[in-house]
Amino acid sequence: MGQGFTLGKVDQRRRSRLLGVVLTVTLFPTLPTQGQTIGQRGMVTAAQPAAAQVGRDILKGGGNAVDAAVATAFMISVVEPYAAGIGGGGFALVYHAPSQTMRALDFRERAPLQATPTMYLNEKGEVIPRASLDGVLAAGTPGTVAGLAALHKRYGQLPWSQVVTRAIQAAQQGFAVTRRYQQWATMRQSVLQQDATAARIFLRDGQVPPLGTVIQQPALAKTLGAIARDPRSFYEGWIARAIADFMAQQGGKITQEDLQSYTPLWREPICGTYRVFQVCSMPPPSSGGVALVQMLNLWQLLPPAPTPMDRGHYLASVMQIAYADRARYLGDSDFVPVPVAALTSRRYAQQRVREILPRRARPQSAVSAATPIQLAEADNTSHLNVVDAQGNAVSLTFTINGPFGAGVVVPQTGILLNNEMDDFAIAPNQPNLFGVVGIPADNAPLANGIEPGKRPLSSMSPTIVLKDNRLSMVLGSPGGSRIITTVLQLFLNVVDLGQDAATAVARPRIHQQWAPDILFVEPTVPSSWINTWQQWGYRVEQTRPWGNASLIRVLDHGQLEGAADPRGEGAAMGW
Fold it and tell me: Is 129:122 a contact under the CB 8 Å cutoff?
């Protein structure tokens, strides 16, 4: 496990600059918050209240932050099937308070060993529409169960079976359909209808269920029961055989060898400094840590923003640079060289910040070359945060990628498969579900191209912040390619603007990801600001709110302040 960092003296020039930002910038209009939640001994935030409650109960019952995180994740796998589950994968960041150390766990899905770089192209080399999104061919080898087991084995203190029990009960008893469930089921209704098992579980007579309909998952309860006895059964027992047999029958590529050989990986987090804060997030194959630190490095070098429009322009500019680099350089570092140190260095930021012009947008072609495309945004990932009484913390993001993943359930198991293979760059400049592209560097292969056993690039950014080497914040969000910029803005809302957790999470967001060449803004951003940005050369698109973020702050007197996003249905629960 990596060592804690000692932070130096605060840069007084930077402090003055940031104070100027706080004094001169008018805040974005803010969505109604879900209220302040305070805990004395522990806090859990999650995208579903039932999941947050399970995590809190684990803390109250003597579990630590990792026990609570694992229990919460399993519960999410039952009650938020459109977003995350045991048929997917993810990342976790863990802060161990006694040793003041931070570790990152990669349980991202892997490309099947039979995968090929051209598996989604026809004989003419053209992309086969939706081949990487719908059906068994879209699925990567799941890592969630192995990841949660590895997390618990290293840090958990309650019995493994105990942290899985509540999820088993929820799968048996069922959960009630909410508006968010209906939203995503409507989007994926036609795909779910094509799979008899998925349609039987998640639809009613082929239609989206009415509000309040109880969704029971007895097959998933059976699978979770087997996992509670032995998590390796997912990879070596009857569950693994059921997955492999189904894949063989349906033309998928995941085999028993893929499952047996899957291993989660402990990695060193990517950390940077901002004022007196140390900000840590995930290393490759997540792009989150690299991009977040790169954007913070650039942000610290910019002059004070005299107006909200200037602040938005500077935010968009640092986002644009980081996402251009993401498209060219980022991938699974076990397969391709990723220049992490260079991209996250202050020297590189000093070089790139000179490109940012006051009150003038730069077209995509001026940053790097690619073809503009339309973004298809989805929030179907789930994030949770936990802090316990000892100051241990977990920030965990996991997913099945798009809404209801591949839209396919493995019979007799209740496992909804991911469509994570779409997160690879299946061809140069070919946008994935979230509109991001991959471009080759100097005629080299795509950094995020498909290779057997490779993990696709991700934007998931579970993040933990230390202040003077002590826990300060735990945060993260779903939202596809918009995750990283959401985390950036949450952090800056707290640190630069002095906002509490609920206000910081509710504040409207902007997003620029280089390709497409669009500044995305949420509906409550004033039209006068949009008009100004357009005058400065931005192509602005106002969309529905995005993300489903959550945040825990450690207050100066040791209390814990938690908030869940009013855009979603989540909750913060303390005790």
Answer: no
Enumerate residues 6+ apart whose C-beta is below 8 A from 84: 73, 76, 77, 90, 144, 380, 381, 382, 398, 399, 400
Collapsing DSSP to helix, strand or coil, 526 comes out as coil
User: 213 catalytic, yes or no?
Assistant: no
The 3-state secondary structure of 186-203, one letter per residue: HHCHHHHHCCHHHHHHHC
Of residues 241, 280, 246, 273, the one with CA closest to residue 259: 241
Catalytic residue among 273, 381, 413, 486: 381
CA 219, distance to chain mean position in Å, is: 27
Collapsed DSSP state (helix, strand, coil) of residue 52: helix
Q: What average pLDDT score do residues 181-209 get? A: 97
What's the pTM?
0.91
In the predicted structure, residue 396 carries a pLDDT above the cut 80: yes
Helices (H), 196-329: 196-202, 218-229, 233-236, 238-250, 256-260, 288-301, 308-329
Task: Determine the Cα–Cα distance for residues 144 and 106; give it in Å rounded to an integer.
Answer: 10
Of the candidates 380, 324, 307, 309, which has an alpha carbon nearest to the alpha carbon of residue 512?
324
The DSSP call for residue 427 is: S
The tokens for 527 are: 């039209």
Other CB atoms within 10 A of residue 26 CB: 11
| Alpha carbon separation from 258 to 416, 449, 452, 570 (Å, rounded) | 17, 19, 10, 34
Return the number of other C-beta atoms located less than 10 Å from residue 255's C-beta.
Answer: 18
What DSSP line would sit under 264-275, residue for residue? Answer: -EEEPPEEEEET
Phi-psi region of 177 (alpha: psi -120 to 50; beta: other; left: phi over 0): beta
Nearest residue to 141 (alpha-carbon basis) of 63, 52, 253: 253
Q: Residue 288, exposed/middle/buried by CB under 10 A (0-12, 13-18, 19+)?
A: buried
DSSP label at residue 307: S
Give φ, ψ of 25 to 5 degrees. Answer: -90, 120
**Among 6, 38, 26, 25, residue whose Cα is nearest residue 558:** 38
DSSP track, 82-151: TT--TTSEEEEEEEETTTTEEEEEEE--B--TT--TTTTB-TTSPBPTTTTTSSGGGPPBP-HHHHHHHH
**Tens of pLDDT along 338-350?**
999 999 999 999 9
d(CA 405, CA 195): 12
Q: Which of 444, 409, 453 is nearest to 195 (CA)?
A: 409
Q: What does DSSP assign to residue 304?
A: P
- In Å, how far from its chain's centre is CA 552? 16
Burial 546-574 (b: 16+ CB within 10 A, else e): bbbbbbbbbeeeeebbbbbbbbbbbbbbb
Q: What is the pLDDT of residue 194?
A: 97
Compute the distance between CA of residue 558 and CA of residue 97 in angstroms, rounded to an integer: 14
Could you identify the residue written with the tokens 């209220």?
Answer: 35
Q: How far apart (Å, rounded) are the C-alpha atoms in residues 571 and 562?
A: 9
Instruction: Tell me whether the omega of the peptide bond preceding residue 159 falls within 30 degrees of 0, making it cis.
Output: no
Residue 344, CA atoms < 13 Å, CB-side half-sphere:
24
3-state SS, residue 250: helix
pLDDT above 70 covers a percentage of the chain that reads 89
